[in-house]
Amino acid sequence: MTTEYAKPLPRPTAVSQEFWAAARRHELRVQRCRACGRHIFYPRAFCPACLSEGLEWVTVSGRGRVYSFTVVRRAMHPGFRPDVPYVLAIVELEEGPRLTTNIVGCEPSDVRVDMPVEVVFDDVTPEVTLVKFRPSCLGREGEEAGHQEE
Amino acid sequence: MTLKGKAAIVGIGEIKPTRTPEGKTSLGIMAEAARLAMVDAGLRPQDIDGVLVGAPLVEAGSIWPSIVSEYLQLQPTYGNLVDLGGASACGMVWRAAAAIDAGFCHTVLCVTGEAADVEAFYTPRGGPPSTLPWREFETPYGPMGVNSGYALIAQRHMYEYGTTSRQLAKIAVDQRANACANPDALFYEQPLTLDDVLSSPLIVDPLHLLEIVLPCTGGAALVVTAADRARDGAHPPVILLGAGEALSHNIVAYAPSLTTSPIAMAAPKAFDMAGVTPRDIDLVSVYDCYTITVLVTLEDAGFCPKGRGGPFVEENDLTYRGNLPVNTHGGQLSFGQPGLAGGMSHVTEAVRQLQGRAGERQVPNCELAFVNGNGGIMSEEVSLVLGRSA
Fold first, then answer.
1. pTM of the model as a whole
2. Are residues B156 and A42, on separate chains, in Cβ contact within 8 Å?
3. Number of domains chain B is built from
């Protein structure tokens, strides 16, 4: 069954395309500054801490913790209306950076702040893969969590 | 560097909020608020030589100072758009004082206004596609406007400090009691209990519907003039005693801290400039797009220690009759949020209270007010200390 993806999609830029290309390969990559060693997210043209242009892409663990979360019960964009309630979260990666994401593969009521999570790649269209997270204790049955249908 | 005592607010104008535009336009509302402020100050258009404008949120337009100047037939020697979201109004007050102090002008009109309703506010705006980071790295995951951003702050605050929904609800309840003494408030004569707040639907956990501001139509304007010109007005001038500003992130995921806002930098600057402390303050008039906003503001401005905001709001009476009056006009939660004029409502209320013309909700012997404007998701903060003229 093919249904058209009705939610807003990211539009990669010259600076960010490696992040999205890696996600399509089911790899979580962020930039690291060769000069000061910091991991950087979102992608930038230079290190905002030391202004070095010497950034490299590195694959990170994909492990992190829920820094905070909310259960969205009324969607603003119509594309998300079939999904409510869903979990919008900030995940802090082991390597430091925080990112906005969804927690999938569990009930919204099971999500807690500081819960360990691991990355899961949601191939929402043939071209775009979104980076989401699930509770890290989940077994293989949660693999396709991003595609679960009620 | 100081702006202490350099300028004063000598006129205010405010349009009573309504749920819908009722045929009005944003520019029409801005102009009417400006007219009321000039009349209140006893000034004519030719007395105005500076214009600061906040752009309406649901109106297309650019170069707003000229749009406003044209309508009012002003020829200012200083004009600017102040783009600090909900902090814009407070940002205008010190920017006006700084321009006056630098000699670019002597009397500045600060204008905000919005013709919108809740549907217009929450309908995604048209226009060219955004290439900004929020569009690429947040929108695809389904944030609910800024609501979800404040929910993320509230959830983290609960985790770090044990803050409860009941404590947050107390803020909405006390402010509603204030609104019930303000005939201009959108929720006048509609008292609220803790259980009303807690039994209203969860929208973005942990925030309930009655902890979230209602976008509406309205407008507000101020006249700021040099202190040495301020004596001639119809009302006692309200003196700018202190100001501080601090900015940070745009997307809440990238905030240095979710629970300590840039107010922790802005407010001390304002208090230091004024030479006073939170203990000296008679009226707290601070941005309240959500209950959590007030709680974090009270902590970061130093009214209570970090993390103690929950017990603090429970232990103190925040109504106009209470020991620590907060948002005596009802706050935007009960007054309404007419775009950037919502942020200005905290300034107009402080002026009314300091001038002794707040009517039924007048705080006795109100001499010093702390005002805070907050933009984005606790991203842009401007703190002011305002005082009754000596």
1. 0.96
2. no
3. 2
